[in-house]
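Blinded run. Sample ID left blank on purpose so nobody reads anything into the name before looking at the predicted structure. Input follows.
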Amino acid sequence: MDAYHALANSYDRLTNDVNYEQTVEFYKQILVREGCQPRTAVDLACGTGSVALLLARDGLQVIGVDLSEEMLTVAFQKACEQENAPVFVCQSLQELRLPRGVDLAVCALDSLDYILNPDDCREAIRRVYQVLNPGGIFIFDVNSPEKLRAMDGQVFLDEDDDVYCVWRGEFDEETNICSYGMDLFQREGKVWYRSFEEHREYAYSEAQLTDYLRSAGFTRIRVYGDRKFDKPEPGEQRIYFSARKGRIK
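Blinded prediction complete.
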């Protein structure tokens, strides 16, 4: 089964330890450092819309983009009662098209790693450059190659009263891809339903992504450790990038 199909309805419960507020706060700190005051934004691979909703609450006009219809359905349901709700669009990042340019593009929680073909990742970054307004900024994070390699052979468990999820990691050095099969048990009433999904992430290096950003035309490329304004250290689990389209006059 495709990633995030059966998982969509349980995703927020299984990721309730993810602090989206801290992620958005780090975005804000980057924007202050860059002297950027965006009015419009796109949340790429927005999933269930948690980041998009926070950006919209701060007054930005937000578009959320994701390839999973199931995840977007959850995002739309969450946004229904919010003023200044984001608009959600079903697209792949390598085919990204928006009805208008934006000042800010963000891509959270290693979503670029799900693009398994490096040429497609390069194209996705080029598309992001195209949809940004002059002076716009792109902020994203990826799992470090060290983290993905360390997942090889690991077994993880997530659960609450209505969901039980076991996933097993495997890293293929030849393809540079980490795969993790996910057995998902979801309760409806007194009945438990079992499903299986496979998630796969490509281990992009800092040098690769920096090259893709430069090739697309981005300047002022910054690389950070996990939500900190220091360069990534050896063994860093998550790496953040920011890059600008042109310069602020």
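Unblinding after everyone has recorded impressions. The chain has seven helices and eleven strands.
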